[in-house]
Design a protein that fits this description.
- The protein is built from 21 helices and no strands.
- The two termini are 22 Å apart.
- It has 435 residues and is mainly alpha-helical.
- The protein has one domain: MFS general substrate transporter like domains (Growth Hormone, Chain: A, Up-down Bundle), CATH 1.20.1250.20.
- The relative contact order is 0.16.
- It is globular and about 55 Å long.
């Protein structure tokens, strides 16, 4: 832990309980609302019911990627002089109201203009993700300001556990709503409610104590390009991690088609999408405390590795699914992987960085991951329309296994330098000069 991290942790410790008390309900309520608009179980099923092909359904995760990746770097650079960042963090989350707009459009166009709506809903996904992309780099800065570094695994586990429980409750409500009302009104009501709930859920952040480091916001003015070049040249760990993410991002996007595959193969009703959202949240709730403990004790790289194992197991189970009930296990495993991807990856980036460049690490990593995230949905959608989705899941399984091997071989955990296989076992080949 660097000197500035130690000082920040000592200042944040007295406010730990108060901040955790305010933060826990945020994730609980956010998870409840997010279950209504879950991309994999809910949005893709809605697009499928509107008559979209797999290739067109791929537009939704692609728009999520574009929205989530493009604005993080300018957002973190333009807000770096803002000392208290929680206010703009809350303001950016008003983007959730785009889902309420999507609900209104689904309500009025679901029956009369389904051909237009299959293009509008991915646009809503993109707008919502763009708003989140403004907020997410700030979270990488706020997390150590709210909570001490040595408690970050505990905090992340508690928050994601709350989000998972909220998602379970939201999945139950979504299942009931999808069964009670006819299409498209059932999806429209979910979108309307989900947007309002998520936008309101972040308000408690305004009452948390933000420990602002001395001198924050008064750093010497530097150009964005100069900062990015410095970070990229100086930190080989970031370069290796981004290389591994290229493989895992390309494979992980295949999970967006799991619900569509299950409904088409087993001829399941719309309400099953809500049950899938419940299973996804349940997996996140189960995995979050375990992964948080793993991160605190063993390092965040190990948590990421377990997440890759989980999503690989989900793809394997989807390939061999013989009954509809097995798909619930697929989504539980995918939920564990989602918790690992969010919690472990973000915390690993936080530990790699310094207070001065913390937000830039997360923003740069998200922006550099744009090419595989953008290409993969369309590739898997095209392949699914051509040969079916089971070969897609088999290919994604292979990529996740390759990504797991590369993670262990190339990436060091900041807490445990020298841990990667190629260094520790002397297997580094003579042509391997990337350091």
């Amino acid at each position: 832990m660097s000197q500035d991290s130690r000082e920040l942790a000592s200042l944040a410790e007295p406010h730990f309980r108060r901040n955790l008390l305010f933060a826990a309900p945020v994730d609980l309520v956010w998870g409840f609302g997010a279950a209504f608009v879950a991309l994999g179980p809910i949005i893709t099923v809605c697009l499928h019911r509107l008559g979209a092909s797999n290739l067109l359904i791929a537009l939704a995760p692609a728009m999520q990627t574009v929205g989530f990746s493009l604005l993080q770097l300018p957002a973190i650079h333009l807000t770096r002089k803002v000392r208290a960042k929680r206010y703009i963090f809350v303001a950016f989350h008003c983007c959730a109201l785009f889902w309420s707009l999507g609900g209104l459009l689904t309500l009025f166009w679901g029956q009369t203009r389904p051909g237009v709506l299959v293009w509008v809903l991915p646009l809503v996904v993109g707008l919502f993700s763009a708003g989140l992309s403004l907020a997410m780099p700030l979270w990488g800065q706020l997390l150590p300001r709210f909570f001490p570094d040595y408690r970050r695994g505990l905090v992340s586990g508690v928050l994601l556990f709350g989000a998972g429980l909220g998602g379970v409750a939201g999945g139950l409500v979504a299942t009931h709503a999808l069964a009670r009302w006819p299409f498209p009104y059932n999806f429209a009501y979910l979108f309307l409610a989900g947007g309002v709930i998520m936008a309101a859920s972040v308000l408690p952040y305004l009452f948390m104590h933000e420990t602002v480091p001395e001198g924050a916001g008064r750093e010497e003015q530097q150009g964005l390009g100069r900062i990015l070049r410095h970070v990229w040249r100086e930190d080989h760990r970031l370069r290796r991690l981004v290389a591994v993410r290229y493989v895992t991002e390309f494979g992980g996007v295949g999970a967006a088609f799991l619900a569509v595959y299950a409904l088409a193969r087993f001829h399941l009703p719309d309400a099953t999408a809500g049950a899938f959202a419940l299973a996804l949240s349940l997996g996140s709730a189960i995995g979050a405390p375990l992964l948080g403990r793993t991160g605190d004790r063993r390092g965040w790289r190990r948590g990421m590795a377990w997440g890759m194992v989980s999503i690989a197991a989900a793809f394997a189970l989807a390939v061999g699914a013989w009954r509809p009930e097995t798909i619930y296990g697929v989504f539980v495993l995918a939920g564990v992987a989602a918790a690992a991807d969010w919690m472990c990856y973000v915390n690993l980036l936080v530990e790699m960085s310094t207070e001065e460049h913390r937000g830039y690490y997360q923003a740069m990593a998200a922006s550099l991951a744009l090419p595989p995230r953008l290409v993969a949905p369309f590739f898997w959608g095209w392949l699914g329309d051509t040969v079916g989705l089971r070969p897609v899941f088999a290919a994604c399984l292979v990529l996740m296994v390759v990504g797991w091997i590369l993670l262990l071989a190339l990436v060091d955990d900041p807490r445990r330098p020298g841990q990667r296989v190629l260094r520790r076992s002397g297997l580094r080949p003579p042509w391997f000069t990337w350091h």
